[in-house]
Amino acid sequence: IEVNEVVKVQPTLRRSRRGMLELDLQLLPFLEHSFASLKDSEKEGYEKLLLEEDWQIYDWLRGITTPLDENVALVVDRIMRFQRKNDTVCLDQYKGLVGMEARIEN
Length: 106
Hints:
- By secondary structure, the protein is mainly alpha-helical.
- It has six helices and no strands.
- It starts with a helix and ends with a helix.
């Protein structure tokens, strides 16, 4: 994300932090690397996605169920494709989060 985009994305970034590490590992890298390239309808879908419960989002991102809202379904598909393409980005971020948690505990 470009510096001027950070101000626009900051509230979305805060809402993207969830109560499940599994969701953080999928949503945060996607937000950082792909959010700026989303169409307005997909950004709207992402905002609607964030209004849902964690377990619902997690089921969607695992392909267990499908969102009824078309814009949410489009962005879920984009996140899933990003995840498949960029597994190493998510793994690196996971390692960073685990390291951060270890430093906090000590």
